[in-house]
Design goal:
- This protein is of the alpha/beta class and 399 residues long.
- It has two domains: 131 residues, Aspartate Aminotransferase, domain 1 (Alpha-Beta Complex); 240 residues, Type I PLP-dependent aspartate aminotransferase-like (Major domain) (Aspartate Aminotransferase, domain 2), CATH 3.40.640.
- The chain contains 14 helices and 15 strands.
- Strands 2-10-9-8-7-3-4 form a seven-stranded mixed β-sheet, with helices on both faces. Strands 5-6-11-12-15-14 form a six-stranded mixed β-sheet, covered by helices on one side. Strands 1-13 form a two-stranded parallel sheet.
- α3 runs antiparallel to α11, α5 crosses α10 and α7 runs parallel beside α8.
- The protein is globular and about 60 Å long.
- The structure holds pyridoxal-5'-phosphate.
């Protein structure tokens, strides 16, 4: 057994937790006490004790005024990227923000202008399209191609479609979700090189959102876009954090790595124009502790959630012949298709909340045609996974 006990049941209701306390509002139920929350992407596990200690120490002195940056933070980020992914970043390439979505927004504002097109690979994390549209840019969708074997879904990029999109006159940026949320694709080095080459040849700036980079199923290895594409250093950036892998999203600590000096200056000038705050001190201490003291945590975490996701895939194969599901290569987000399991037009999120007592994300959030799909967050105790799958089966059997 590892250092962490991820089987320990933890009551998060009543702790101001968006995922567990927000269900009445989101799912339209009067009382969600008996529901299982498997929507928003955070984990139902305690953080590593090293992170808890760092946070407590950061807040020990009871004056919470302005502070300098966290000592050793840049070295911690450089060490992590180098050790885990072989990406050799330099101190002067790193800047911090409160979140990865803020980094995507800042990049859109910096490297495109109103009316430009920004490519995304749908279905994909919905704030990408939201921020592109909110900044008066156009979304260019490149739908990923769906395959299915024995009820297990798998998605690929059609490189012809991607190239066609990059060749459009208005295409100026590509926001890459790597690994991919919600499909759980872990892009291979070869795929990343190919995407990088096509983007470069067509003058398309790449924003690599690598927030899920640490979370890979047992046996898999993440490749960093910039490590795979040193030729893209002058036309790309990446953003990441420890929010997902170490469960510290509420501390708002993210970083951006921009190898090109002019791009770095332009990006940080936009942040400054927006008065966008860099990460807070406590979040910075948590990130530093995660990357320097708690590496074991992410490996134990990955092993646990891999078992959860294998269980879900097997459950569907053995019990739900009309359902299709991913068994993700990366992330703890599972994508499930109920097209053949429910009458056409059923509001799937509503059905599963009200008939199964399971709170999931509606697939339509991630791409307009995915209304019969849901996204399931598997970063919870195995007992919750077992109960949720049994409830989903009972609700489908009894409809
Ligand atoms: C791909 C992706 N990017 C960004 C975020 C959110 O990042 P942040 O809270 O740092 O803005 C998420 C959260 O689920 C995500 O899945």
């Amino acid at each position: 057994m590892g250092k962490m006990n991820f089987d320990e049941m933890i009551k998060r209701r009543g702790t101001g937790c968006a995922k567990w306390d927000g269900m009445e509002g989101v799912f339209g139920v009067e009382n969600a006490d008996d529901m299982i929350a498997m929507w928003i992407a955070d984990a139902d596990f305690f953080v590593a004790p090293e992170i808890e200690a760092a946070v407590k120490k950061a807040d020990e002195f009871p004056i919470y005024g302005y502070k300098f940056g966290v000592d050793g933070l840049h070295d911690a980020i450089i060490g992590w990227q180098s050790r885990r992914f072989g990406f050799e970043a330099k101190k002067e390439w790193i800047t911090t923000l409160t979140g990865v979505v803020a980094a995507v927004t800042t990049a859109v504002q910096t490297f495109t202008k109103e009316g430009d097109g920004v490519i995304i690979q749908t279905p994909v994390y919905h704030p990408f399209a939201n921020t592109i549209k909110a900044n008066n840019r156009n979304v260019i969708e490149v739908p990923l191609t769906e395959n299915c074997t024995d009820n297990i879904l798998h998605y690929d990029l059609d490189f012809d479609l991607f190239e066609e999109a990059c060749k459009r006159e208005d295409a100026k940026m590509f926001v890459l979700c790597s690994p991919h949320n919600p499909l759980g694709r872990l892009w291979t080095e070869e795929e990343l090189k190919k995407m990088g080459k096509i983007a470069r040849e067509n003058g398309v700036f790449v924003v690599a959102d690598e927030i899920h980079c640490d979370i890979v199923a047992t046996g898999n290895k993440f490749t960093s876009f910039l490590a795979a594409n040193p030729e893209s250093y002058s036309s790309a950036l990446m953003s990441s954090s420890a929010s997902k892998s170490f469960n510290i999203a509420g501390l708002h600590a993210a970083y951006v790595i921009i190898p090109d000096e002019e791009n770095y200056k332009a990006f940080t000038a936009t942040s400054s124009r927006n008065s966008a705050p860099s990460m807070g001190y406590t979040g910075g201490e948590a990130l530093r502790a995660a990357y320097t003291e708690a590496e074991y945590y992410v490996d134990e975490f990955n092993a646990y959630i891999t078992e959860n996701m294998n269980y879900m895939a097997k459950f569907v194969q053995e019990n739900l012949p009309k359902v299709r599901i991913t068994n993700p290569e990366a992330t703890y987000l599972v994508w499930m298709d109920l097209t053949d399991a429910l009458p056409e037009g059923t509001d799937v999120k509503d059905f599963l909340a009200k008939k199964a007592g399971v709170g999931l994300n509606a697939g339509g959030q991630f791409g307009a045609k995915y209304t019969a799909y849901v996204r399931i967050n598997a970063a919870t105790q195995k007992a919750n996974i077992v109960e949720a799958m049994n409830r989903i089966k009972a609700a489908l059997d009894n409809q």
